[in-house]
């Protein structure tokens, strides 16, 4: 192995900084490395190791910025230690992934592996060290893929890491972690034998390292690779070992893992025993430890199975909810995010269902909404959750309902909000009016197999609607709850609808209309959480009577072609002197339009292309295909953005119940409203619909009502409810910004 390239001199300052890192004196290391002069031959290395220290200190944004500076320096002046070049790119990927930008991190890990191949050829004397850095990168890459729920691709990366480590038996520091990750990936793709072998190898590699042995065995227990008896004893021994060593948080966490397995095995006796062991440690835990909040969910489950009273179960769940609000940090590390947010969602949904059981409807509503809003805010923006944290309605029993009253204050006597939630074993609709909260519920599922089937049916709705199956593609439970919703609303207007998770796949407006609601009752904006503030009613009513319409391309048939630039000109003309049309629209034209305080319509084709790490939706403009993420560089000032391209409004709901897709990204960037198409849409329909909508907006009709009126006009003109009207949607973000991500659906404007 070689240390540095020939003729390279290490400065005393840089050497002192590296010694401080070795001694874990991280603050001193930062100060020393920051003093390295910009003209020093070690300047790039100093930046790279500063980024490493910032990463260890969990200051991920700073680590990212410093890492980028180091890579720029290496690209310009070279790197005296080639393995560090690869390590720095990998650390950049880690810092990005730990800021919840997993998709972006995959590209960086890919760059690191390509750099490793290149440097190995250029500097064969460093080949061994570079290969080990490549193995570390493959392990990080595989871990990110696991968190993105792409286990098949994770297997490929992790086996590459494993195979490299095996070539260096004297330096396998990363192999046990890789094998543990590989076991998880194998389990998720159904290869349980390979998973068990990976855990066995990880255990054998640990030798006499008891901590590493327990880590490997616990991973095997969580993956269900051991019998219940073996898993139970392993976790008990591991927790006791951690407690004896003074690692109380680790001991408590291992009891939480045992509680999870006891719940999975439906063994309340084992679970209650574990809860008692864990609670005995609580007086010695840090006051801000999050693990007791996790445990309260399982404690409530086991109490319920032992036949405890509703009041006793509620008290446990309320205590846990209070802890989740008091103790959950503003930003979770990605490695903790899925487990934490998933369990938090389960806790608040269980609390909501328990409240409904005893008729406490208002508390049930706010418990559910705060649960999903907390996950949503954790993923996107800590500032969004500050009002929730300061309110913390779970400090008292009965709960403080101030947040409910604030939502109701935004309504008139003739208006309601509707929130539709999956609260096993029921599908529930909360109907919030000025004075009351009404609840309607239908039976949902009775077992896990039925739950999986229900979710799969919801997920298939877009494709089934495109295949013209109409209302027959909607699950019977959703149809039933919609009938209940229509009945409960009566003659009032729905001004906001907030579906839960996969329920966003349902074309609710069309379904409500099909089951008897009038268009005048459906001026609602689809939103993602009413807890973050209702729709900005003033903004909805006072949209500017000015527009920029951009067009590019043609569509239709050979006998009846449609010019999309003409469509843009027609929309702009509605606004007279305040309308501007831009033909042959380019990405820079759209970017500039979005920065204006005007309505913006973009009429063009859209399609899906394969990009790493997943397919992405592109607007096809005169200068090629561009994602909205690529186009939008500054704040979107346009209050309403209309994306007429097919599937521009297709989005998924991620872990924190926040939306991922092109239209949500427009809202994230600053727009208050976005009209978009959920499926492949008929261009002849949009040619008539958008001018109809534009005339209503220019006449001063509030956006929600204008949208519903335009749909009513199209229905009256003979357009089909399910083939045309269900394809288009109005989204809004109320007083806050929402989520972002990559487009995952497929389609192209017809």
TL;DR?
This protein is an alpha/beta fold.
Topology:
Blueprint lengths: L11 H11 L3 H9 L8 H14 L3 H18 L4 H16 L4 H21 L4 H21 L3 H16 L8 H14 L3 H14 L4 H13 L5 H17 L3 H17 L3 H12 L11 H15 L4 H18 L6 H24 L3 H20 L5 H6 L10 H8 L5 E9 L2 E7 L4 E7 L4 H12 L1 H6 L9 H14 L3 E7 L8 H7 L10 E2 L10 H5 L5 E5 L2 E3 L4 E3 H10 L5 E4 L4 H8 L4 E5 L1 E5 L6 E6 L2 E3 L1 H4 L8 E4 L7 E3 L5 E3 H7 L4 E5 L5 H16 L4 H14 L11 E5 L18
Parallel strand pairs: 1-4, 4-5, 6-9, 6-10, 10-14, 14-17
Antiparallel strand pairs: 1-2, 2-3, 7-8, 11-12, 12-13, 15-16, 17-18
Helix pairs in contact: 1-2, 1-3, 2-3, 3-4, 3-5, 4-5, 5-6, 5-7, 6-7, 7-8, 7-9, 8-9, 9-10, 9-11, 10-11, 11-12, 12-13, 13-14, 13-15, 14-15, 15-16, 16-17, 17-18, 30-31
Question: How much of the polypeptide forms β-strand, as a percent range?
Answer: 5-15%
- Order of strands, widest sheet: 9-6-10-14-17-18
The N- to C-terminal Cα distance equals 60 Å
Structural class based on helices, strands and sheet pairing: alpha/beta
Please compute the radius of gyration using only Cα atoms: 28 Å
Per the CATH scheme, the topology name of the largest domain is: Rossmann fold
* Broad shape: globular
> Spans with pLDDT under 50 lasting ≥5 residues?
736-750
Mean pLDDT across residues: 87
Number of helices: 31
Q: How many domains in all?
A: 5
Number of strands: 18
CATH architecture of the largest domain: 3-Layer(aba) Sandwich
